[in-house]
Structure formats: structure tokens, C-alpha cells
Amino acid sequence: MGTSDCFDSPQGRRIVYHKSEGKGPWIVFLGGLKSDMEGTKAVFLEAWAKAQGRAFLRFDYSGHGESSGTFEEGCIGDWYEDTVAAVSALTQGPIVPVGSSMGGWQALLLAKDMPERIHGLVTVAAAPDFTEDGYWANFTDAQKQALEEVGHVELPSDYMEPYIISKRMIEDGRNQLVLRAPLDLPFPVRCLQGTADAAVSTETALRLMDHATCDDMRLTLVKDADHRFSDGSCLQMIEDAVVDVLGGL
């Protein structure tokens, strides 16, 4: 669905994307760690946007999906460069980022750097600062030692093969943190979070709510929804949140 193509980012990475032209603001889906643009939420939103005649973009970060590079060599900053490159090259005017898990962190970085382009923001199980607060803070001494000596650690995943977490990912993540300094979100924000999410806790969602400065920010906790947040009722909630922040446009 939409136009499948690729472009070379300013950093020389080949980024593969699907883009559907339509009326703005652009809906930009930002996926999670080791996910790709063929995920249920991304494809669902694209179909909805196309049916509504709305502009929509989904893409693969480098080291993810069909884009160039390997996951093990990437980091939050690299993937944010990809996000900025895709938004700058492929969209015009206001955007509504829809960030899932790590994509929520990416969306908040966009909010810090280009608030003038953001019409509204939707997060799904947002995972800001997870390299520091989720990984580093919970690493054992042995894992921290392995990170120094070997350069990476393996973490089990409920969804796929183990994650390879590199020393570079941890160190770069410290340059991308959004919950340590003021976070001004001068546009409507809707956050969705499942209570059965084993990857991102409701505490993280509440911490984001408490930390951000925003006049129109709402958090919806969904009982028994997991990290995928992809069943029919969850997808409808994502659609409703996007419609809400669009505000009738």
C-alpha cells in the first residue's frame, strides 16, 4: 500500500519507506526497537490514512527491516538521524508522529528539536530513555563488565531472537535522554499504555506525564493490553487518538 521507495540519508544510509500522498497534517509512524514498517500498527494506520485521503509515511530505521546497515551497529542517535532525514525529505508542513515503544522516544526527540512542525503527537507504549533506565539501570555487574570487555551484551526477547545491546547504544543513549531536562510539548498529546505490557511499565507512562509540560496531554491505560497493542480494540484506540489530535482537520 502506498509508494515503496528508498532514499539516501545525509549520513549515507539507505532508508526504505512507504509514502501515501494526501491532505495534511502528515501522519508519520515511528516503529519500535528491532521492529519494521510492516508491523500491524503501521500497516493499519496506513490503510486508515489512505481511506481518509490523508498523507502518511512509514519507514525502516537503518539496521531495521529493508533499510541498510545492521542493528548491532546502530543506536538511538543514528535512528533519530534517520527519523529527521525521513521527515525532512519526505514530508511537508505539519506532522502527527505516532511513536510506538522506541518510536515514542523518537517522537519526543522530534518534539524537542522541531516543535514548530508538530501538530499533535500520539505515543503507544512509549519507551523514552529506556537504554539508561531500562537496560543500564538493571544490568548486573557481570553484564556491565561484559559491556566494557566484549562491547555488547545479549538480552532475551519475548518476540524474537535475543537483542544485542552494544556499549555504543548505551553511551549514545545518554545523549538522547528526554526525561532529565524540561520537556515542553506545545500541542495535543495522547499516550496509550497497556497494563499487561512486560516491556514498558505503566510507571514509565506516568513518569512521562508528570515530567512533560503540556496543556493538552492525556494518558489512557488499557487493562490487560500487552506491549504489541495490536488487537482490534487497541488499533481502534490508536485511530481515535490520531483523530483526536488532528482536531477536525
From TrEMBL:
Keyword Transit peptide: yes
SUPFAM superfamilies with a match to the protein in the record: alpha/beta-Hydrolases (SSF53474)
GO MF, one example: mycophenolic acid acyl-glucuronide esterase activity
Enzyme Commission designation: 3.1.1.93, 3.1.2.22
Keywords, ordered alphabetically: Hydrolase, Transit peptide
Domain AB hydrolase-1: 27-139
InterPro entries cross-referenced by the UniProt entry: AB_hydrolase_1, AB_hydrolase_fold, ABHD10_acyl-thioesterase
Keyword Transit peptide: yes
Catalyzed reactions per annotation: mycophenolic acid O-acyl-beta-D-glucuronide + H2O = mycophenolate + D-glucuronate + H(+); S-hexadecanoyl-L-cysteinyl-[protein] + H2O = L-cysteinyl-[protein] + hexadecanoate + H(+)
Name of the top EC class for this enzyme: hydrolase
Its job: Acts as an acyl-protein thioesterase that hydrolyzes fatty acids from acylated residues in proteins. Regulates the mitochondrial S-depalmitoylation of the nucleophilic active site residue of peroxiredoxin-5/PRDX5, a key antioxidant protein, therefore modulating mitochondrial antioxidant ability. Also catalyzes the deglucuronidation of mycophenolic acid acyl-glucuronide, an active metabolite of the immunosuppressant drug mycophenolate.
Protein name per Swiss-Prot or TrEMBL: Palmitoyl-protein thioesterase ABHD10, mitochondrial
Species for this entry: Parasedimentitalea maritima
